[in-house]
Write a structure and sequence with these properties.
The structure holds two protein chains of two kinds. Chain A is α/β, with parallel strands linked by helices. Helix content of chain A is 32%, strand content 26%. Chain A contains 17 helices and 23 strands. The longest helix of chain A has 16 residues. Chain A is globular and about 75 Å long. Chain A starts with a strand and ends with a helix. Chain B is mainly α. The termini of chain B are far apart. Classes of the chains: A alpha/beta, B mainly alpha. Chains A and B meet through α2 and β8 of A and α6 and α7 of B.
Chain lengths: 499, 314
């Protein structure tokens, strides 16, 4: 195919708070190609593409599309310019019909004399769906009637029927069955064969290898390289994806430390609706058990189940003495601590002071008679803020003003203050700079040495390898591999089990 | 096969709604066979139900988005007071136009204040309700405004019914035959996605408030025609006027997947009117009447919003 440039990505940067999701990314997409875009979680792929189709705007840099500078503020503007996207999550609005979803923002074509002609819209939708071979989907039906995969088919039609120059397929295949994938591939080929372009994001390197013409690799928000798919192997791609030399200085250094045989907490054949499939695990006393996998494969759900936040499951979660947890309150009373991946919304109270955040769960011990003693609170909060070296102006400062890392330290301080036996850390170092990360790893190691049991849920493979005594890898909601701590464990070994 | 399933769901919805209608009817009919539920009684319940049903149609646009408007009661009072003044001077045209204009304007103010201030709609509209009540009280300065006898046509059959049918047709038009209806549902479904898809969310929220005001104006016309007079309300007394239309909207939400919302609003208001009339016929003291209405409301909401387990309720 030709080498005419379709889209220039020119020096694009985007930051969320202190996390730089994209750093000066520059490369080009050609006309008439299927261009793969790969990278680990957090490498910046989705951020980059969401800027291309208008969900976010870049902090710096610009896009040049078809020779002109291009900027979209929402998907409709992107569509008008000739760019569309099929996204990872749900891209349909419930309560609306298939036809209404399909032509959202484009109703004008169906309005005559001030009346929206629903019938005409349904007929148009039906004929498009038929053209794509989806006769079973009906334009007049409410989308909620259809399952996730079928709705994805509808989105495929929505994103491609108007023949946009560029279609972004953002990790859509994970939601599709093999048959569904074939249908999507067929559409992608059609687009390329008509001289138009696809950007294809996927974690499945095999499909990237077999479907794309060229592949660009992102790592930690930086552009690494673009290669011709024919000239490379899947293993080469993996190396490019995870390439960095592992920096071990921040992690535990011990190997071969024996782990106690004593099981303190366990999960037996737990299945939750749509996420976990028959997951069993045992947490031993004094170990760090890592749980890794792709973002939506169920790893975060495990933390919620173990903490009693998700009670809608089959199977059993129990302590060594057979006791079960029925609520979060009970879990805490039994000595379980939990830090959520969504720190701002689920772990800290943003508009309260550091003092109140730290004392939150310890007020019973801070009483003097029937009153809570302010002086006890002050010294208590100071003690734990200091223990975790929270960088702050003082304990009266609001948590909202702290950096992500220091917020996390406040969360840890709050839990350590009530001395839990089991700690569940979900993505404890997410969006945290390397200095604070090291502090958090240190705290975890200290806790381990004190005989506390830790579950570390993380999408970052390196920290799992660096910190855990054992690692369970989940794929599509089921345990797909187990690794025991050893020096020769490689990132690639874990990735193989994840994708 | 699929078509059959769709029919089934619709049929189920219709049966449930008709069933609850019939159940309420039978309960009171059995208790008071002679004083409740004759054909002429039923016709009068229907006429009563038309008022909140008309306002409910407008309020539905707000409720679907997950917002509230508690000011429509105050809107009805204030627009009626102005309508009576204008109508008594220049006749029907002035009466109708002034009420609808004032009511829509108040809706516009609600919408703009809500969108600009970014405060929850409940709080904005309660604040504005108090202001509208106050304006009405200042305007009336303690007196009752009586509508001239020549302007009473909308107060009885058949004009009230024709008037309401036109109102329902307008609601149907906006809900089904314009972008407004689709976007209202889209915003209610997922505001962020809707915005990302290029919908001007603020604009359509303001439009929804204007529609709520407009239909409150239509209810205002019926209300003042039924009673021939309007007096100002203060101390949030107008809230109770907002309340019945809101109940109709909850019915519409409960059946939104199976029955056209306008039909379920009418049916819902009819059921509520039957309950209220029935309670009076049975001789339940007014305090206890409120108890029944409160319980009914909670039951309806319970059936409407099946909140997921563990979801945060505010």
């Amino acid at each position: 195919m030709g080498n005419q440039v379709l889209l220039e990505i020119d020096n694009i940067s985007k930051a969320f708070g202190i996390t730089k999701a994209c750093k000066n990314i520059t490369f080009t997409i050609n006309k008439g190609e299927i261009h793969g875009l790969i990278g680990e979680n957090g490498s910046g792929k989705s951020t980059l593409t969401s800027m291309i189709y208008g969900l976010q705007s870049p902090d710096e840099g610009r896009f040049v599309f078809l020779g002109k500078e291009y900027k979209a503020h929402n998907q409709l503007e992107a569509n008008v310019a000739g760019i569309s996207a099929i996204v990872q999550e749900a891209g349909t609005l419930s309560g609306l019909t298939v036809a209404q979803n399909m032509f959202l923002g484009k109703e004008k074509e169906f309005i005559s004399n001030g009346f929206l002609n629903n019938k005409k819209m349904n007929v148009a939708a039906d004929s498009l769906l038929k053209e794509y071979g989806f006769e079973t989907i009906k334009g007049a039906d409410i989308v909620d009637k259809y399952n996730f995969e079928t709705r994805k088919f509808m989105e495929i039609v929505k994103a491609t029927y108007f023949k946009p120059e560029l279609v972004i397929v953002d990790e859509t295949t994970t939601a599709l069955s093999q048959d569904g994938r074939e249908i999507l591939y067929e559409q992608m080929d059609k687009i390329r064969n008509s001289g138009r372009t696809v950007i294809f994001i996927s974690h499945d390197l095999d499909e990237v290898m077999s479907k794309t013409d060229r592949v660009s690799v992102l790592r930690d928000g930086e552009y690494i390289t673009t290669v011709n798919t024919k000239e490379i192997t899947a293993d080469n791609l993996k190396e490019l994806m995870v390439g960095r030399k592992v920096d071990n200085r921040y992690y535990r250094t011990d190997y071969g430390t024996p782990v106690s045989e004593q099981v303190v907490y366990s999960m037996n054949h737990v299945t939750t609706k749509g996420l976990l499939k028959d997951v069993s695990l045992e947490l031993h006393k004094g170990e760090i058990l890592g749980i890794g996998g792709l973002s939506d494969c169920g790893i975060h759900e495990i933390g919620r189940v173990l903490f009693g936040a998700e009670r809608n499951y089959e199977g059993a979660v129990k302590f060594s003495d057979g006791k079960r947890i029925n609520s979060i309150t009970e879990a805490i009373a039994e000595g379980i601590a939990y830090t959520s991946k969504d720190r701002d919304n689920e772990s800290v109270v943003l508009n309260a002071s550091i003092k109140n955040n730290i004392c939150m769960m310890a007020y019973d011990s801070l009483k003097k008679g029937i009153f809570i003693s302010p002086s006890k609170c002050n010294s208590f909060a100071n003690k734990f803020a200091k223990k975790l070296s929270v960088k702050m102006q003082g304990i009266e400062q609001d948590v909202a003003g702290l950096s992500g890392g220091n917020k996390q330290k406040v969360v840890l301080a709050r839990w350590l203050a009530i001395n839990p036996e089991i700690l569940i850390f979900d993505s404890p170092t997410r969006g945290i700079d390397i200095k604070v990360k090291a502090d958090i790893y240190n705290v975890m190691d200290e806790l381990r040495k004190e005989g506390k049991s830790i579950i570390m849920i993380s999408e970052e493979i390196m920290e799992l390898i660096g910190m855990c005594d054992r690692i369970l890898i989940l794929k599509n909601g089921a345990v797909n591999g187990e690794f025991v701590r050893n020096e020769s464990l490689q990132e690639q070994d874990l990735i193989k089990k994840m994708i | 096969m699929e078509k059959k399933m769709r029919m089934d769901r619709r049929a189920r919805g219709a049966v449930t709604l008709l069933g609850s209608c019939l159940a309420v009817y039978l309960i009171f009919k059995i208790i008071r066979p002679n004083n409740f539920g004759s054909l002429s009684n039923l016709f009068s319940y229907l006429q009563q139900a038309l008022m909140p049903a008309v306002a409910g149609c407008g309020l539905y646009f707000i409720v679907i988005m997950g917002l509230f408007d508690f000011s429509i009661g105050a809107n009805i009072v204030l627009s009626a007071l102005i309508g009576v003044i204008v109508g008594n001077k220049i006749g029907y045209v002035g009466f109708v136009i002034s009420i609808v204009a004032v009511a829509s304007l108040l809706g516009l103010i609600n919408g703009i204040v809500y969108v600009k201030c970014r405060i929850p709609s409940i709080i904005v509209t309660i604040g504005l309700m108090i202001i509208y009540e106050c304006l009405g009280a200042l305007l009336a300065s303690g007196s009752v405004f009586t509508l001239s006898k020549d302007l009473g046509a909308f107060g009885h059959a058949p004009m009230n019914i024709i008037f309401s049918l036109i109102a329902f047709a307008i609601a149907y038009y906006f809900l089904k035959c314009t972008k407004i209806g689709i976007y209202t549902y889209a915003i209610g479904s997922n505001e962020k996605s809707a915005e990302n898809m290029g919908i001007n969310v603020k604009k359509y929220k303001v439009i929804a408030f204007v529609l709520a005001g407009f239909f409150a104006g239509l209810m205002s016309i019926l209300t003042v025609s039924y009673g021939n007079a309007m007096s100002p309300s203060t101390n949030m007394a107008s809230m109770s006027r907002s309340f019945t239309p809101l109940m109709g909207c909850f019915f519409a939400l409960a059946f939104k997947n199976s029955i056209n919302p306008i039909i379920s609003i009418i049916a819902g208001e009819f059921i509520i009117t039957m309950i209220m009339s029935g309670l009076i016929v049975v001789g339940v003291p007014s305090t206890l009447q409120n108890l029944v209405i409160g319980v009914t409301l909670i039951i309806i909401i319970l059936l409407t919003c099946r909140v997921e387990r563990d979801a945060v309720v505010k």
